[in-house]
DNA sequence: GAACGCATGTAAACTGTTACATGATTAT
DNA sequence: ATAATCATGTAACAGTTTACATGCGTTC
């Protein structure tokens, strides 16, 4: 289980509640780790019980109270130990690519529709990544920030996320176009 | 559960045994779906029980006998139905990116070592993808194959896998280089 | 007062991973 | 003989997902 390490890594950035963490996992962290809110609430409870994070109650007037967490020295040691072990190859699960894999044997129209849906989502994600990068580097240019800025870890992973989504978008668009052209060519032939 | 659909999509390519399928999932299909052999054996049994694939015993003299499977018309309908539903966004889990996310707070050397390990694995995967693409398109050039070749689904997903690994390789290498430079700069400062 | 966003949790159902087990055949 | 590759499976355990449940405060 490495969800705990993803949570610890995300909490290095500052104090967050389970709810806030869920949002972070939905945007920036989602590039390299997927988790639903319920997983996070459960994992935060376990990490606190093990002393790897410590929680602090925050009383709010305008909203329900919340519990925010920070990484303890023991948590940092756990991350250090994790980084020393061989990283397993990443795992990926993409329903859309399963559909494309099968496209020679099933109707192409629904697959094209899915590709176009996902292209829009990708475009939106690209915008979010761009803004996150801008916010992180402030008024520095990218090269300067990469050489001297801090923290550089979140910047680097966000950069990877951006490239991944850009490649996704391009592939979704070119694949949709290609499948449409092939469908049109077959219609002309057949009709 | 969409492992079943990944298995069905992979079986469209031809008749395969669980063992052969495990190898296919380890190379080409691994770009968009991860599964260990035990999952495949269990899923094949379930799919056959539900009539979505049909198995056939193949007696071999030189090796142990095996059971190969093909997609039934019911299996094809199941795939068709699957393609008509909205594709959930893909999920990804990358330990290596978790480590990079935390790199400002832990020692950089082990992280750099992991990046270099993974860069080599990526380079090997890139070679496999290139050869797979060549084998699929035979003596056609890529553009011609994409327009008129068949099957185009496996070619398109393989192309996505190739691009992904190329981006990985580039990111692993540039990130390792950058972290090494930053570590060197800090040593000079501090020493 | 209905809907929405904030905030957290439990329980059940489903999936996925690991360890173990077996046995054939071929190559060294 | 010993290891490697082919071939398949069971059982125990770990992790993930979904459904359900609760309640505060603000906006429409």
Automatic annotation (TrEMBL), chains A, B:
Residues 92-179 form the Transcription regulator PadR C-terminal domain. Residues 7-80 form the Transcription regulator PadR N-terminal domain. It comes from Actinomadura keratinilytica. Pfam families: PadR, Vir_act_alpha_C. This is PadR family transcriptional regulator.
């Amino acid at each position: 289980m490495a969800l705990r390490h993803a949570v610890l890594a995300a909490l290095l950035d500052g104090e967050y509640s389970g709810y806030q963490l869920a949002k972070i996992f939905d945007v920036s962290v989602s590039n390299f780790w997927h988790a639903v809110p319920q997983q996070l609430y459960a994992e935060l409870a376990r990490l606190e019980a093990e002393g790897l994070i410590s929680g602090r109650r925050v009383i709010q007037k305008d909203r329900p109270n919340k519990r925010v967490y920070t990484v303890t020295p023991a948590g940092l040691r756990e991350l250090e130990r994790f980084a020393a072990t061989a990283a397993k190859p990443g795992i990926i699960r993409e329903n859309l690519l399963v559909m494309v894999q099968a496209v020679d044997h099933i109707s192409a129209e629904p697959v094209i529709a899915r590709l176009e849906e996902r292209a829009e989502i990708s475009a939106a994600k690209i915008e979010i990544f761009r803004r996150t990068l801008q916010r992180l580097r402030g008024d520095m240019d990218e090269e300067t920030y990469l050489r001297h800025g801090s923290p550089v870890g979140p910047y680097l992973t966000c950069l990877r996320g951006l490239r991944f989504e850009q490649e996704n978008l391009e592939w979704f668009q070119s694949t949709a176009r290609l499948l449409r052209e092939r469908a049109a060519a077959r219609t002309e032939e057949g009709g």
